[in-house]
Specification:
The chain is mainly α. It is built from 20 helices and 2 strands. Helix 19 packs across helix 20.
Length: 461
């Protein structure tokens, strides 16, 4: 509120009628109100200007691929899709924003309703820049450094119990359902159930298809076409279930920690929120962002070295454990932790929907998703994901963690890798669970792929 320019002597005497406030004209106050109307985080006038600029370049068929233009394009479409999902009755409580931001672009690409220049530029930028991993690095490092140390240690150990039980039960239930529906036990297990829990496309579907191909002495191309649809549709169901779990958490607050896995006397992330409400230290945020990038690059080095040993360790997983070690060893000072939390909040707020749009355009083939729409496949995939998620909810009570949050982490076991984690946690409004989601996806997926290839090789030995 603007303070009056008059001194204390101009105050209104007690008991007298207050002076009437002169009416404010359109400029600048009326204009400021318009600027407060936003599509996502973008003010409406800025959004309309951006739309006109992108349309101009698209019509001219000379859309630049520089980073500023790509950020503008992804923000333009990503926030529009997210806002559409956020304003749908009922569905907005079930993760519609994340679903729309991911799958509407995929459908538009399939129908050729997006300008080819936009599709090509976004695809090239997404694949070449590995923008997804910058997002994951910022979110993982920020959320880990903002956690209470005791909760962090206990949480990482506790998630393996519901993950293991959920994986076994999901494999059994999914295989039985698929077999009962006529898909065959072997086909159901190796071509429907295992791909769902394999950790996504790059770390799951592709290694599986390559491994199956070597065992069968054939090319992996046809196998990818069989394996990819369950991965895609399983991720979609996991997103929907996470939206439902978010709704359950709002209705029954005692079942959720709103992003914390277990009860605690108080978490550092809460204190960071309180401390940061009064100031923003840009220097510490920049330092934290640099730290996150260096940790990811260190993960790349270790991935390259470990690949030479025949045991590749994914860079995001290495980065995750490095961040945990730094946190537990008190290497990161409190002010840098505040900066890390600010970086995390920025990426979660401003980057999520543009990133989901890029994922939908470049990494989510609509035709692969449609292939899973045969009824036996749909029921089998749904049964597998539902069993995994429900197991997390039930087992959580035994190990004294919040059922809703544990179920969401278990749902990430059925997601589309890192992209699925982003969409699932966005639908659940619990992006701070990203470290646990990455453990579930990366480590759980790697174990699933390894065991599946060993079993498949024995069956065809």
């Amino acid at each position: 509120m603007l303070q009056s320019e008059k001194g204390p002597s101009s105050s209104v005497p007690t008991g007298s009628a207050p002076a009437s406030t002169p009416p404010q004209g359109f400029w600048p106050h009326g204009w400021w109100k318009i600027m407060e109307v936003r599509i996502g985080v973008i003010p409406l006038p800025v959004y309309l200007t951006l739309a006109a600029i992108v349309a101009y370049y698209a019509v001219a068929k000379k859309l630049p691929t520089e980073i500023c233009m790509m950020i503008g394009v992804m923000g333009l479409f990503g926030f529009a899709c997210g806002e559409l999902g956020k304003h749908l009755p009922v569905l907005k409580h079930l993760g519609a924003a994340a679903i729309f931001a991911t799958f509407i672009p995929s459908f538009l690409v399939f129908k050729h309703w997006l300008p080819p220049e936009v599709v090509k530029s976004v695809t090239d930028f997404t694949n070449s820049s590995k923008f997804l991993y910058l997002f994951i690095a910022a979110v993982i490092v920020g959320s880990i450094l903002g956690m209470d140390r005791r909760v962090l240690i206990q949480g990482f150990f506790k998630i393996f119990v519901p993950m293991a039980i959920g994986s076994i039960l999901a494999a059994v239930v999914g295989t039985l359902v698929g077999t009962a529906l006529g898909l065959g036990m072997k086909h159901t297990l190796f071509y429907v159930v295992v791909p769902i829990m394999a950790g996504g496309v790059g770390e799951g579907a592709l290694p599986l298809s390559a491994g199956y191909g070597e065992i069968l002495h054939q090319g992996p191309g046809g196998l990818v076409a069989q394996i990819l649809p369950p991965v895609m549709f399983g991720s979609l169901i996991a997103i929907l279930l996470s939206g439902v779990l978010n709704f359950v958490g709002k209705k029954y607050p005692s079942l959720t920690g709103q992003g914390r896995l277990q009860p605690a006397d108080g978490t550092e992330i809460t204190s960071l929120q309180q401390e940061m409400s009064g100031h923003i230290d840009v220097v510490q945020a920049a330092a934290a962002g640099s730290t996150a990038i260096v940790l990811y690059l260190a993960g790349l080095v270790i991935f390259r070295i470990s690949s030479g040993w025949g045991l590749p360790l994914p860079a995001p997983v290495v980065m995750l454990f490095l961040a945990v070690v730094l946190k537990l060893a008190h290497v990161i000072p409190p002010r840098l932790q505040e900066g890390a939390y600010l970086v995390y909040r920025f990426f979660a707020t401003a980057v999520t929907y543009p990133l989901l749009f890029a994922i939908g355009v470049a990494l989510t083939p609509w035709d692969a998703l449609v292939k899973a729409f045969a009824l036996p496949n749909l029921v089998t995939i749904a049964a597998t994901v539902l069993t995994m998620t429900t197991t997390g909810f039930v087992v959580a009570r035994w190990i004294k963690v919040y059922p809703v949050d544990m179920a969401i982490v278990n749902a990430c076991r059925c997601g589309q890798g890192g992209t699925g984690d982003v969409a699932i946690l966005t639908a659940a409004d619990r992006m701070q669970l990203m470290p646990f989601a990455q453990v579930a996806t990366r480590i759980g997926g790697a174990i699933t792929v390894t065991l599946a290839l060993v079993a498949y090789a024995r069956l065809h030995g």
